[in-house]
Amino acid sequence: MNEEKLFAFKDEIKEALATGKPIVALESTLISHGFPYPENLEVAGEIEEIIRGYGVVPATIAIIGGKIKAGLTSSELEFMATSKDILKTSRRDLAVIAAKGLNGATTVAATMIVAERAGIKIFATGGIGGVHRGAEKTFDISADLQELARTPVVVVCSGAKAILDLPLTKEYLETMGVPVIGFGSEELPAFYCRESGLKVDYVAKDEVEAAKIIRAMEDLKLGGGIIIANPIPEEYAISMEYMNEKIEEAVRAAEKEGIKGKKLTPYLLNKIKELTGGKSLKANIELVKNNARVAAKIACELIK
Ligand code: PSU
Ligand code: MN
């Protein structure tokens, strides 16, 4: 079968799928383009360990030499963290990168696609892409949002970064029918900040309630994804006023340098890291780890 030529799942993942063990998918764009080295490699390893701590199998998704992988070995993780030869891969890019035998780091959108093909129901990341500020002129709206509308995978994240236009992102998700569920929080988290001034659609008080909602989505065959929005732990959160100032500065710098398209998100992340003296990086690491915990707990609930 042609599918077999495309995919190369780690034995551990194949076994977990065959025996119904809980699995959490992880994206690789945050490793290759989101975090700097060596923090990227450390975080990639740590989130896998956190997930294993709950008896759940982590499945990091990436494309290496054209093979679409679920579950990476430690040398593959290291490759994703260090190679300069890795393309940011969203829905648009997936087939081309596989066919040409290239290396790709999967975004939220591409990770959802691969997870769904593999039969993995839940995925943990930092933040989703969204509607960029000024999108009414640039049309820059992340393919993550369309993917959430069509692919039935649960995405545990800390909302979307305030580098985006959060009210427009929220509107877009509503139009697309994507439920945004706050995990123990009524406020839509804004990545580094626990608050955004926007409300989530509904609250799940814990993993049991989250799993119930996810099961109802499945039973209704609604087809799309769902966002579990989990705020950054209090002790690592950054205030909205401080962050907004830095973000505006980063957005202005991007405009001045003419940064567009798929380069924009990694550019802004790096700029904000510089402008906050590394504070944003620490927050980013901690929120991803916290999302891995929540995803693992929900994954356990989902197999009951
Ligand atoms: N948010 C982050 N860090 C990231 C990303 C988002 O805090 O690295 C990545 C994710 O992989 C997301 C992608 O899917 O950026 C969105 O990129 P774009 O806006 O080009 O669709
Ligand atoms: Mn974009």
**Relative strand content:** 5-15%
Mean pLDDT: 96
Q: Outline, from the CA principal axes?
A: globular
Total domains = 2
Task: Identify low-pLDDT runs.
Answer: none
Radius of gyration: 18 Å
CATH architecture of the largest domain: 3-Layer(aba) Sandwich
CATH topology assignment of the largest domain: Indigoidine synthase fold
CATH domain class name of the largest domain: Alpha Beta
Helix proportion range: 40-55%
Structural category: alpha/beta
How many E-type strands? 11
**Ligand catalogue:** pseudouridine-5'-monophosphate, manganese (II) ion
CATH superfamily of the largest domain: Indigoidine synthase domain
Binding site for substrate: 88, 108, 142-144
Active site: 27 (proton donor), 161 (nucleophile)
Cofactor: Mn(2+)
Subunit structure: Homotrimer.
What does this protein structure show overall?
The protein has 2 domains: 1-120, 3-Layer(aba) Sandwich (Indigoidine synthase fold); 126-304, Indigoidine synthase fold, CATH 3.40.1790.10. It has helices spanning 2-6, 11-19, 29-34, 39-52, 74-82, 91-99, 108-118, 135-138, 143-150, 166-175, 207-219, 240-257, 264-275, 279-302; strands at residues 7-9, 23-26, 57-64, 67-70, 87-89, 104-106, 122-124, 154-157, 180-183, 202-204, 226-229. By secondary structure, it is α/β, with parallel strands linked by helices. The two termini are 33 Å apart. A hairpin with a 2-residue loop joins strand 3 and strand 4. It is built from 14 helices and 11 strands. The radius of gyration is 18 Å and the shape is globular. It binds pseudouridine-5'-monophosphate and manganese (II) ion (MN). Manganese (II) ion (MN) binds next to loops.
